[in-house]
């Protein structure tokens, strides 16, 4: 165990809103051992920015970690050459060029189809009725698992996310995660002969073409699903909510005074869909006056880093005009999110401008409160909206 001071949290309150506790930690104990999480948390942006690059100390290789145990050994849990080899293998599916050439037009088609199906007279929830299926349909394309239903993509992603954040060891949560990974394995098995016969630019297609071992293919597809579904889903719904509750900023975006990409990047700073990434201490290490012992677990708290007062003025305020260059919402080191360009295209190029262009006078309903939760992964649980029907 590290020599970091102990900092107690109320797990339920931390799930509901981690930011007050994280602000206290940044002030009083920026490197703190939290007994309720069984880990030492790094909460300041500069500590995380430096430490994430020190893979010889803050290792992603965690043989006994929840992700390895439940999902298989994917590239996110590898360092150095092993990580780089798998990252390079998937690049043809998720590079900026691949997103522009292969996926962007199809993303737009899914967005338009889903919006066409929305009924302004119905009780529409933009999480359930747009952000969730849009994210899943796009992810089906990118992964190559077009044989899945979008409902399964979302449910299985959430089950894996819950599983790898199950630090209290709830057996029911683990069982749901195991059922999800079994379903994904079956979907992969169905698609392998199809893509072997007719290769494409999906993740499954390019990994097969690269000769990646089947166990690694399975693990990396599960990694893509675990993050590639919830992050765009949560960022789309969350950014829409943020804009609807800040109408003066919505006007700036709609009138083109602030780019949609800037809007998305500020939301991802303000409420980071991925709030934490775990690491294993590989050798004795000291940061300032805190000594770390090998094999202990450390959480890099991206959600805290992105509200660090040392880099962001009034960090608890959503402000699309701010400089977000110091944000590390997608990571800061060799594990920088490989799907970042796909996420940016889905959200900033397609979802946000399309929703606000096509749904006239989009606004929140007042019959149901918006709910939000999570700290390792954080997002809206619902987004009840209404708008005016347009005359054809």
From TrEMBL:
Which keywords describe this protein according to UniProt?
A: Heme, Iron, Metal-binding, Monooxygenase, Oxidoreductase
Does the keyword section mention Iron?
Answer: yes
Cofactor requirements of the protein = heme
Read off the InterPro entries from this record: Cyt_P450 (IPR001128), Cyt_P450_B (IPR002397), Cyt_P450_CS (IPR017972), Cyt_P450_sf (IPR036396)
The signal peptide, as residue positions, is: none
- Show the PANTHER family listed in the entry: CYTOCHROME P450 YJIB-RELATED, P450, PUTATIVE (EUROFUNG)-RELATED
What family does the Swiss-Prot or TrEMBL record give for this protein? Belongs to the cytochrome P450 family.
The protein's name? Cytochrome P450
Ranked from the top, the taxonomy reads:
Bacteria, Pseudomonadati, Pseudomonadota, Alphaproteobacteria, Hyphomicrobiales
